[in-house]
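anyone else get weird line breaks when pasting these?? whatever heres mine. first is seq + tokens for prot A
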Amino acid sequence: MKEIACVSGVELLNDFLEGVLTPDVHAALEAHVARCARCAAFVASYRETPRILREATTMTLAEDLEASL
């Protein structure tokens, strides 16, 4: 497998996180993320997004704030 660059890695990110890449492509992307701080942060933010959205939708607004919206 050819080495993965940031641009091609971003295109594969969704499949990487869903675990549907072929083993060689997954390993190459995982190796890239392990040595690229920018891509590691990008992957971490994608992994955290569902949790952040769940927490944001379970919050209750104060009545006066909700009424003002």
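and prot B, same format (seq, then tokens)
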Amino acid sequence: MPQTITEKVVQAHAEGLAPGHEVLAGDMVTVRPFHVMTHDNTGAVMPKFAAIGAERVADPAQPVFTLDHNVQDTREENMAKYRRIEEFAASHGVTFFPAGAGIGHQLMVEQGFVHPGTLVGAPDSQSNMDGALSAVGTPVVRTDAAALWAGAVTWWLVPRTVKVVLEGALTPGVTGKDVIITLCGLYNSGEVLNAAIEFHGPGVAGLSMSERLTISNMTTEWGALVGWFPFDEITSEYLSERATVLAANGHGDRLTEEMIAGWEAN
């Protein structure tokens, strides 16, 4: 049986595979994700990082810290935690977004940290949202995040894949959230539990990027580990818009027109 997209992406990020081995569902593999995002839970990952004896972040370009979950809490206890996280990021050269910069998952896609065909993780269940940009975005636990900081790799059990074919087009007034809520209601007996969802079919073309982001994000509520959409003109246009913004803000190296042209060609 041919590999699914999820299996191909995992294969591209796997290390230590036997020669000729093709990654398939059920395989336990060592993977090196493109990025790993932590938010306020960075404060909980830091002691785990220390507990395993790590002293330096192995690949400072891999983690991204985004403070977003408890920004309304201005008590000294929370502010002290935020300062510790910022100091840790500075000492290790990790990209850091302070409280108020935005929602972590949103920052990942808007700030060029999610690329088509990459594996991206975070100790947060809504990591599936990265799939809207044709990445395999998936949750990991905090211990895995600490291991990634320490060694840039972790293990992952490759999930089964469920193909969802979307037909037709949305009628006026119907949104991406309606689509995923309907799917959750129609198939509510564990059909996609712990699976990788791959969306296909002619209906995909009519979905805006915001609708795809919503659907991918809420595949979590459906019980899935991944919510992937194919790369097409909508994806390319969105990435080009983001590349222009990033270049204007001095971060053009994260996402370039050359990269986008490569994804269009392949």
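btw re prot B: The two ends are 22 Å apart (CA to CA). The mean pLDDT is 97.
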